[in-house]
Design brief:
Elements: H1 10-36, H2 51-64, H3 67-74, H4 82-107, H5 114-118, H6 125-152, H7 159-184, H8 197-224, H9 230-261, H10 264-274, H11 284-301, H12 304-307, H13 310-335, H14 352-383
Helix pairs in contact: 1-14, 2-4, 2-7, 2-8, 2-13, 3-7, 4-6, 4-14, 6-7, 6-14, 7-8, 8-9, 8-13, 9-11, 11-13
Length: 384
């Protein structure tokens, strides 16, 4: 089936060339940084994690959301999801690859990855994350590929593939739960020291990842003429509403003990995020815009008419993705380091090199996703 990725018009090849160029620029900048040090980045002793880890956390959630199409199709027999399931699985492959590349970018030196193999520590969430992420990528790539192959030859999906699908459901939940443990396992950071961080991560994942899949499905329908299923898209839009409401509820619930307890050291991170602290308020617009975008998306998606409108659905799902990236990505990661252990406020802004590398990572992921979707759509069209 690989040959199907080589068939395309001028627009297709121009798009691939553009993505390859952007990815190459970022790779060259990363290699220059690896040879000369991380002074190009805006990180510091007080804020050691920045935009790379923020994007990594967000994209792990996007990958985990594939259970929203796998679960109804394979456990509940909802055939409406048959056309969109493979798109979700390939989206998860690209999302995990993106997350891994952001970790690599944050490490600065690629050789540091070997420390996981040379000095494994099962007591660390990082150790389990290093197993769960690549494993989930392989699971979804194998499942998506063999499901397509079965459809192409008009045979039943092999039983072992179905077993892998069922395995991927708890695997996805475990993967993003362990990601939350990386944060909540740091008791010195009050913003992350919360028992509800794991369910909050899952709720935001199901909202942003499902919204991303809806956007991708609409783009595929517009560009290729293949319809992943209007019924499935409408049902996914309903999932986005519930997941966004759940995430917003968990955010507010997490603020209650902070505000009610009155412990200043616990209040300072949230005060910095939503009100500003000691004259510093760099993340305040991000935090409030995230809430406003979530509320606006909910208001738009609860209307059946909006869920049936392609443009309204694109706007609402785009708002959800941006909101969740701001909330669980940039604001959560960076805001968690304010104030420092010494009570100082060190604000962080990504530098131009960080932004270029970030864009290049997304370009590489889009390149992989385009190739996988090209194969999937070609096979789907053959079997219609």
């Amino acid at each position: 089936m690989l040959e199907k990725a080589l068939n395309g018009g001028r627009a297709y090849w121009s798009w691939l060339l553009l993505l390859l160029t952007v990815a190459s620029v970022g790779l060259a900048l990363y290699l220059w940084q690896a040879a000369n040090g991380v002074e190009l980045f805006g990180l510091s002793r007080d804020v050691p994690w920045g935009i790379f880890i923020a994007n990594d956390t967000f994209m792990v959630g996007v990958a985990a959301s594939v259970v929203m199409v796998v679960l109804p199709l394979y456990l509940h027999g909802q055939r409406d999801f048959a056309g969109i399931a493979v798109l979700g699985e390939f989206m998860a492959v690209a999302a995990v690859m993106t997350a891994l590349l952001f970790v690599l970018a944050d490490l600065g030196q690629p050789g540091r990855l070997l420390n996981i193999l040379l000095y494994p520590n099962p007591a660390s969430p990082f150790f389990w994350n290093s197993i769960l992420l690549p494993g989930f990528l392989i699971l979804n790539l194998v499942v998506g590929w063999f499901v397509l192959d079965a459809e192409r030859h008009e045979v039943d999906v092999p039983r072992w593939v179905t077993l892998l699908v069922l395995l991927s459901i708890p695997w996805a939940i475990a993967m993003h739960t362990v990601t939350s443990f990386i944060y909540s396992g740091l008791p010195a950071r009050p913003m992350w020291d919360s028992a509800i961080l794991a369910p909050r991560f899952l709720a935001s994942a199901f909202a942003s990842g499902t919204a991303s899949l809806i956007i991708l499905s609409l783009v595929v329908r517009r560009c290729s003429g293949f319809d992943p299923g209007s019924g499935a898209i409408r049902k996914l839009a309903t999932i986005v509403v519930y997941a966004t409401v759940a995430n917003l509820f968990l955010v507010l619930v997490g603020l209650f003990p902070v505000a009610y307890g009155g412990v200043e050291s616990q209040q300072d991170p949230s005060r910095y995020l939503y009100l500003g602290l000691n004259g510093h308020s760099g993340l305040v617009p991000w935090a409030w815009l995230s809430i406003l975008l979530s509320v606006g998306a909910i208001a738009l998606l609860v209307s059946p008419g909006a869920r049936g409108s392609e443009w309204a659905l694109l706007v609402a799902c785009g708002a959800v993705c941006v909101s969740m990236w701001m909330d669980k990505g940039f604001a959560l990661v960076v805001g968690g380091f304010v104030p420092s252990s010494f009570g100082e406020v060190t604000e962080y802004l990504p530098t131009v090199p960080e932004l270029v590398i970030t864009l290049s990572v997304y370009a590489a992921a889009a390149l992989l996703l385009t190739l996988l979707y090209k194969i999937a759509v070609a096979v789907k069209k053959e079997t219609l």
